[in-house]
Model the fold of this input.
Amino acid sequence: MDKTELESGVAAFPYWYHRIELPHGVTTPGWAPLSADAYRIPDDLTDKRVLDVGAWDGFWSFEALKRGAAQVIAIDDFSDLVGELEADDRKAWETFDFCRSALGFDTDTCQRHEMSIYDLTPETFGSFDVVFCFGVLYHLRWPMYAIDKLAAVCTGDLFIESAIADDFSAYRGAGKGFGTEMVMEFYPNDEYGENETNWWAPTLRCMGSMVKAAGFDTVRGWKLADPPTRLPECRGFVWGRKT
Done:
């Protein structure tokens, strides 16, 4: 596709979550990630097999391949409508497929599958050297079970990004979070961000301990912003490694 075809194709989709750089200087008009560097993904993923959970438009799937990954398996169940989308506005894998084609990745090296994180088993796709789980944990009714499912297929590094409750509580307000307490805040309705698919926000300490409890020997955690100045910045990262 030339630049005009790319621009026309991008404009045809009603909503973009990810900001993805395509050829000819074309970039999709999404807003995520707020800071790709904050995820601390290794620059070199040469020959790694990567699982991208909650792939959406595919930013991290494509980024893994750009960094040398041998294969990426992307999964999503399309349950998150970010509190504002109509179901028809989210075009399932259409945006992913459009970007994959534009970037020249083939469908075997860059696979995508509609499925729930709860259905992952070692028999489904085998094991992975690296697992991404970004913007997913707080949308899950059973987050610890989900981390156990990731642990079952991850032989190396797990990277998780989630809303965290360190500096914000949907019930207490901004600046009145739980700090370093070992807690998760529960949202039975749309208390967090007016999005009914947001169920939990752990503290960073809690999320790190969940990853450790799932069998990762080395665990590190950090915030997107410290202190955050707005709700989208109330995010945390955990890296876990099996040795």
The helical segments are 3-11, 59-66, 94-103, 122-125, 143-153, 204-213. The chain has a mean pLDDT of 95.
